[in-house]
Amino acid sequence: MKSSAYSLIVILLSVSIVGCSNMGGNKWPAEYKETFLSGCVDGASSSGQEIFNTDKAKIYCSCTLEVLESRYSAEEMEDKWKTAMEELVKDGTLKSCLQKAGVPVP
User: Fold this and answer.
1) In this predicted structure, what is the pLDDT of residue 62?
2) Is the dihedral of CA 4, 94, 37, 20 positive or negative?
3) Quick one: pLDDT at residue 9?
4) Mean pLDDT over all residues of the chain?
5) Using N-to-C axis directions, what is the helix angle for 2-18 and 54-71, rounded to 10°?
6) What pLDDT is recorded for position 12?
7) Tell me: the pLDDT tens digits for 60-72?
8) Do 23 and 74 contact (CB within 8 A), yes or no?
9) Are 8 and 21 in contact (CB under 8 A)?
């Protein structure tokens, strides 16, 4: 169950990123960040997974957003969102953000 929850979060973040479009520059525009956070939090907290409540989802999604924004421009995220998410899984960032939110990780 924990592994499926982890996979679900990666998918939810991917959907949140794809939903943001036509943004450029080095700093993510407020609208882009709001769309990302809203999609991520809504998806995680309504996923049916008991491990996520809205507060934990906000912490997790904010942590992930901070990392993504520090590594990629909004324009880069549009072009390589899947690769970016895979990198966050491989380097342990998503796991770290889950732990920061108090979510059990596999």
Assistant:
1) 96
2) negative
3) 53
4) 79
5) 60
6) 52
7) 999 999 999 999 9
8) yes
9) no
Q: What does the block give as tokens for 104? A: 């059990």
Residue corresponding to tokens 């957003």: 65
Instruction: Identify the segments of the chain with pLDDT beneath 70.
Output: 1-26
Tokens, residue 101: 């939110």
CB 88 within 8 A of CB 6: no
Is 0.90 surpassed by the pTM of this model?
no
Write out the two tokens for 62. 């904010």
Rounded Cα distance between 90 and 30, Å, is 28
User: What are the residue boundaries of the structural domains of the chain, listed by start?
Assistant: 2-11+29-100
Q: Report the C-alpha gap between 45 and 77 in whole angstroms.
A: 23
Residue 6: name the closest of 51, 55, 42 by CA: 51
DSSP alpha helices (H): ranges in the chain?
Answer: 2-18, 30-45, 54-71, 74-90, 93-100
